[in-house]
C-alpha cells in the first residue's frame, strides 16, 4: 500500500541468522523509508500492530500438524510492553470483522502516529488511502500475494505430504469424523474456572476437576480433537452414512457444520465433551458463491438427516484418557451409558452451550 520494504528471518540461510537478518534490514533501509522486518520476535523501537494486546512467541520443538502450530501461537504469547515499541495500534479482532475493515483501522492508527506523519516521517505528505484503495490492496493480497517461504523446508514438507498422499491413495479412511475448531485444554480450563451456583459444593464437579488436572499433569489432553461419525468396522450395516460422508468430503467446497457442546463427563478413566447436536449453519458462509452454497446446503443437510439416533447418542469429543492403555472407544461407551440413564460412577459437569464449527474429514489414524 505504501511501497515499504519487507524481509523475513526465514529467508536467512546463514548459521548465525541474527546478524544476517539485520544486514538484510539495513540494505532495504537504504532504498525504503520503512521496512517491515518479519521476525519471530518483533524488534524493538518499531511501530507495532498490537492485536489483542499480545504477540506470539515460538517454540522450536517439532509439532505434528498445522492446527497444533496455530494453537501454540494462540496459547503461548507474551504481553507487549511499551518499551518494545515507539507506538502501537490496537485492533479489536472478532470473527465478524471483515479484513478490509481491520486494514482500514490499522491505516487510521498509522496516520495518527506523529513520528510517521510528522516532519521527516515516512508518511509525511503521503495521502491517506481511501476505502477504495484499501479494498484494492486487500483484494490483491487475498488473491495473489504470498510471503516467501523457506524453500528447503517447504520442499521437504511437500515431499513428506506427497509420500503420505501416495500411501493413502486408493486406501479408504479408517473412519469419518468432524474436526472441530476447538482448543480442548483452553476450553475445559474455562469450564472449570467458571463459577456457577453451588459449584463449590458440587462433588461431581470436584471429582471431574481432579481427574482433569491429572490428565493435564500427564499431558494426556488431546490437541487434535475429532468427533467420530462412522468407522469402517461398522460396514456394511452403516453403508448409507459412510457413502454420505464420502459425498460431502469429495465436494469442491465442503460445508462447515455447527456442533453444540453442553456437558462434560468422566468416569475416572476417560473424559469427554458431549456433542448435543450437529446442524448445518443458517447463515451463509461468505467464502461460498451462491451456487456453491446451495450445493453445500443440499449435501450438508443430507448428511445431518442421515445421522441415526444410535449415532447421535454417542457423539463426543474425547478430552483424554487416564493412560495409553485405555482405548478411546471408552469415551463412546461412556456417552452411551449416560444417555441410557446409567449414571453410576460418572461425574457430569454442565456448562453454557458452546457452538463450534467443524468440517467433515476422512481420517486415517
TrEMBL record:
Region of interest called Disordered, as start-end residue ranges on this chain:
38-64
User: What does UniProt give as GO cellular component?
Assistant: nucleus
Show the ranges annotated as biased composition (Polar residues): 43-64
Domain tRNA ligase phosphodiesterase positions: 127-356
BP terms from Gene Ontology:
tRNA splicing, via endonucleolytic cleavage and ligation
Database matches in Pfam families: tRNA_lig_CPD
Q: Which InterPro entries match?
A: tRNA_lig_PDEase (IPR015965)
Please name the GO terms that the record assigns under molecular function.
ATP binding; RNA ligase (ATP) activity
Protein name (Swiss-Prot/TrEMBL): tRNA ligase phosphodiesterase domain-containing protein
Q: Which organism is it from?
A: Leucocoprinus birnbaumii
Amino acid at each position: 500500500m505504501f511501497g515499504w520494504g519487507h524481509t523475513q528471518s526465514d529467508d536467512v540461510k546463514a548459521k548465525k541468522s541474527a546478524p544476517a537478518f539485520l544486514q538484510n534490514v539495513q540494505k532495504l533501509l537504504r532504498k525504503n523509508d520503512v521496512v517491515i522486518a518479519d521476525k519471530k520476535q518483533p524488534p524493538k523501537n518499531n511501530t507495532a500492530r498490537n492485536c489483542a494486546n499480545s504477540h506470539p512467541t515460538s517454540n522450536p520443538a517439532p509439532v505434528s500438524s498445522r492446527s497444533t502450530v496455530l494453537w501454540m501461537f494462540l496459547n503461548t504469547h507474551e504481553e507487549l510492553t511499551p518499551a518494545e515499541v515507539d507506538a502501537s495500534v490496537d485492533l479489536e479482532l472478532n470473527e465478524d470483522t471483515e479484513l478490509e475493515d481491520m486494514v482500514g483501522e490499522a491505516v487510521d492508527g498509522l496516520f495518527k502516529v506523529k513520528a510517521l506523519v510528522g516532519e521527516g516521517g515516512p508518511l509525511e505528505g503521503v495521502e491517506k488511502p481511501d476505502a477504495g484503495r484499501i479494498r484494492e490492496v486487500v483484494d490483491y493480497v487475498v488473491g495473489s500475494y504470498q510471503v516467501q517461504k523457506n524453500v528447503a523446508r517447504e520442499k521437504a514438507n511437500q515431499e513428506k505430504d506427497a509420500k503420505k498422499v501416495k500411501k493413502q491413495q486408493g486406501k479408504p479412511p479408517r473412519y469419518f469424523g468432524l474436526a472441530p475448531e476447538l482448543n480442548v485444554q483452553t476450553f475445559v480450563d474455562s469450564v472449570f474456572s467458571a463459577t456457577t451456583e453451588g459449584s463449590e459444593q458440587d462433588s461431581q464437579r470436584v471429582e471431574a476437576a481432579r481427574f482433569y488436572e491429572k490428565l493435564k499433569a500427564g499431558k494426556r489432553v488431546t490437541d487434535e480433537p475429532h468427533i467420530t461419525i462412522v468407522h469402517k468396522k461398522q460396514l456394511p450395516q452403516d453403508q448409507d452414512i459412510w457413502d454420505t460422508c464420502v459425498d460431502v468430503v469429495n465436494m469442491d467446497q465442503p460445508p462447515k457444520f455447527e456442533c453444540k457442546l453442553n456437558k462434560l463427563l468422566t468416569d475416572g478413566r476417560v473424559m469427554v465433551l458431549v456433542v448435543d447436536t450437529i446442524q448445518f449453519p443458517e447463515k451463509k458462509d461468505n467464502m461460498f458463491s451462491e451456487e456453491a452454497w446451495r450445493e453445500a446446503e443440499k449435501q450438508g443437510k443430507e448428511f445431518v438427516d442421515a445421522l441415526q439416533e444410535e449415532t447421535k447418542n454417542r457423539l463426543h469429543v474425547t478430552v483424554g484418557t487416564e493412560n495409553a492403555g485405555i482405548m478411546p472407544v471408552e469415551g463412546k461407551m461412556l456417552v452411551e451409558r449416560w444417555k441410557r440413564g446409567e449414571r453410576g460412577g460418572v461425574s457430569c459437569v454442565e456448562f453454557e452451550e458452546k457452538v463450534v464449527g467443524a468440517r467433515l474429514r476422512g481420517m486415517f489414524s
